[in-house]
Amino acid sequence: VLLVESGGGLVQAGGSLRLSCAASARTFSAFTMGWFRQAPGKEREFVAAIAFNTGFTYYAETVKGRFTISRANAENTVYLQMDSLKPEDTAVYYCNAPIVVLTPGNYWGQGTQVTVSS
User: Fold this and answer.
1) In a designed cystine with 44, which of 19, 38, 109, 118 is the match (CB 3.0 to 4.6 A)?
2) Residue 4 contacts by C-beta under 8 Å, 6 or more apart in sequence?
């Protein structure tokens, strides 16, 4: 089972980026999927998650109101729309499943770098 991310890059503060995570197996449609991130010298932290069956969404307080997670079940894909980006959002972003009680599961994507310049 693979999680393949795309969409990272360099953006100025206040800008936007959209990350995508495509899962190789349809079994992921039963899971909550989402994103974690890790900045240099810091621990990996939860960012956002979405339940595939109900569509319920969960956000870290630091991104609430700026990031939006969504999914396309037919394509086994999860998206993270990141708006009003701040330099402190700079990190490697990892797709993950299955997320249970905001705790990461065993499947990780390869990571995609997001850099926000001031």
Assistant:
1) 38
2) 21, 22, 24, 109, 110
